[in-house]
Amino acid sequence: MPSAGAPAPQPHPQEPQSQSWDDRRIEVILGNLLRAGVLLSAAVVLSGACVYLSRHAHEPADYRIFRGEPSEFRTIPGVIHSVLNGRGRGLIQLGLLLLIATPIARVAFSVVGFAIERDRMYVAFTLIVLAILLYSLLGSGLGV
Amino acid sequence: MTILEFTAVVAIVSFVAGLLGSLTGLGGGVVLVPLLTLLFHVDIRYAIGASLVSVIATSSGAAAAYVKEGFSNIRIGMFLEIATTFGALLGAFLATRIPTSALAIIFGAVLLYSAYLSRKPRPLDQRNLPPDALATRLRMNGSFPDLAGPRSYNVQHVPTGFGLMFGAGALSGLLGIGSGAVKVLAMDQAMRIPFKVSTTTSNFMIGVTAAASAGVYLGRGYVDPGLAMPVMLGVLAGSLFGTRILVKAETKSLRLVFSVVILVLGLQMLYKGFWGKI
């Protein structure tokens, strides 16, 4: 304990060292999480590609006219159903859903990270971002 | 073309786009949509859906490498993500209501601007700026390791940066790109964030921004598995390979070549958009 006469240590305006270290450790964990998510989704997409190409390789490819995807490729229940039916394109869509979920998971983990640092302001900011992301996923028809 | 041939050619083109994008730092997503629409005659809506997915893949895939460098500022990133994700939602909703020829024209303009920006010399980082009250309240100021030891920086003009990032998010959701060019404008020029910090932070943000609109695109049936598969795998492999060889490559002439490609694609998109050929 410093004596009463000694000046109290001034907090550095640029944030103390320990906080940036905490930030840094959270970042390393998040970076690895992101890479793992991407590699997992790429593996799922690749396996779906093998099934898809082994069945449809010699059919004509045509993306000139926009038709929109059927519901089995644009809703989460539809995708799961078509994966269970062994469809390659369903597996590709599952991989893409995992890919979209990866940055969302990173935001969710950031909430925890800021909470550990007791940074209420940034917990609130991160929750706003998370709410927008979840709204875009579930409010756009993906859920039905 | 059969599906096998189409998949192989699109995968190769996407690989090259991802490789050049990561070597030059200009991002591969910005050339993908014009290449798919102009070269392969893919409907621009399918092209945007596929590109958006590949943007998430490259951003998230590169994150681990960027984190090792330790320059990114997660507070700046998270605060600005409020703006970019809101913008991305707006862009994704607009994309379904705007005619495809207008999409092509906006895309062409963004490409021309990116080409211009890539030739412009980067302004020198301004040092020793006074702390800004709002940025200090938001705890955005920080420091990063520089050659001569840790260097601290003070973030400026937060509201301008926030507004520009909303625009960057809207463009990302509308066109399926990372919109690195607008992010540079917001973070480097308005907020005066040092270049090393702004590039790594914006990489973190790009994936989150793209995820906000990718959900909308997938839910609306704009993401075709047969097209998104070679694009996503190709771009991801290309960009990961690019970060591996980055140290050895001669990037100056590559940057010139790539910016000429962007310029030509931009003019083509404008032409096709104005003459209603898209």
Folded structure, characterized:
- The complex is a heterodimer of chains A (144) and B (278).
- Chain A has one domain (24-56, 69-138).
- Helices cover 67% and strands 0% of the residues of chain A.
- Chain A contains 4 helices and no strands.
- In chain A, helix 1 runs antiparallel to helix 3 and helix 2 (76-84) packs across helix 3 (88-116).
- The longest helix of chain A is centred in the N-terminal third of the chain and has 40 residues, at 17-56.
- Chain B is mainly α and 278 residues long.
- Chain B has one domain.
- Helix content of chain B is 74%, strand content 4%.
- Chain B is built from 11 helices and 2 strands.
- Chain B has helices spanning 3-24, 29-40, 44-69, 74-95, 100-119, 133-137, 158-175, 180-190, 195-219, 225-245, 251-274, and strands at 142-146, 149-153.
- A two-stranded antiparallel sheet of chain B has the order 1-2.
- The chains are: A mainly alpha (144), B mainly alpha (278).
- Chains A and B meet through helix 1, helix 3 and helix 4 of A and helix 1, helix 3, helix 4, helix 9 and helix 10 of B.
Nutshell version of this structure?
Chain A is an all-alpha fold and 144 residues long. Chain A is built from four helices and no strands.
What percentage of amino acids of chain B are in beta strands? Answer: under 5%
Helical/strand content category of chain A: mainly alpha
Q: Can you count the helices of chain B?
A: 11
Return the domain count of chain B. 1
- What is the string of helix and strand elements of chain B? HHHHHHEEHHHHH
Largest interface: A-B, 72 and 71 residues
Major β-sheet strand ordering of chain B:
1-2
N- to C-terminal distance of chain A: 62 Å
Which series of helices and strands of chain A comes N to C? Answer: HHHH
The number of strands of chain A is 0
- How far apart the termini of chain B lie comes to 20 Å
Tell me about the biggest sheet of chain A?
Answer: none
Low-pLDDT residue spans of chain B = none
Counted up, domains of chain A total: 1
DSSP strand count of chain B: 2
Largest sheet of chain B: 2 strands, antiparallel
